[in-house]
Amino acid sequence: MNDPLVQKFDRDLLDEDRCREWFLLWLYGSSICCPRCGHPLKKQRVPRFFQGKISYCSHCGKKFYPLRGSPFHSSKLDYQELAAILLLWGLGVTPDVIAALLKRQKVAISGAVKKIEALKRMDRCTF
Ligand SMILES: [Zn+2]
Q1: For the chain, which residues make up each domain, given as ranges?
Q2: What's the whole-model pTM score?
Q3: What is the pLDDT of residue 31?
């Protein structure tokens, strides 16, 4: 945190579209399943999912947003912040420092880190 370049980091350095795609790819992998029935999303609908738009399950008719049914469903953090947390935490940056860089409360960062750690230990298709 003493590095002046690190201190100048903030979420606005990150492209929103790329952060959403990258975070969702980490969260789900490339095969997307319906949160209600578990049926795989049709291939032609996957790009729309990664654009953050409502997806439609052709099997059961469920409409859902990308984070629906995931541990980040009710998160107040946006995709840029989630991607930054995933990256910085993976590089060994502590939640205190991440909170300062993103100008967020430590509890929000710690909560996201706990979810990330829990997800690393499980099969993503189980939520
Ligand atoms: Zn479905």
Answers
A1: 10-121
A2: 0.85
A3: 78
CA of 59 to the centre of ligand 1 (A): 5
Could you read off the pLDDT of 68-99 as tens digits, one per residue?
888 999 889 999 999 999 999 998 999 999 99
CA 14–ligand 1 middle distance (angstroms): 33
CA 4–ligand 1 middle distance (angstroms): 48
> How remote is the CA of residue 94 from the centroid of ligand 1, in Å?
38
Give me the DSSP letters along the chain.
Answer: ---HHHHT--GGGS-HHHHHHHHHHHHH-SS-B-TTT-PBPPGGGHHHHHTT--EE-TTT--EE-TTTTSTTTT----HHHHHHHHHHHHTT--HHHHHHHHT--HHHHHHHHHHHHHHHTS-GGG-
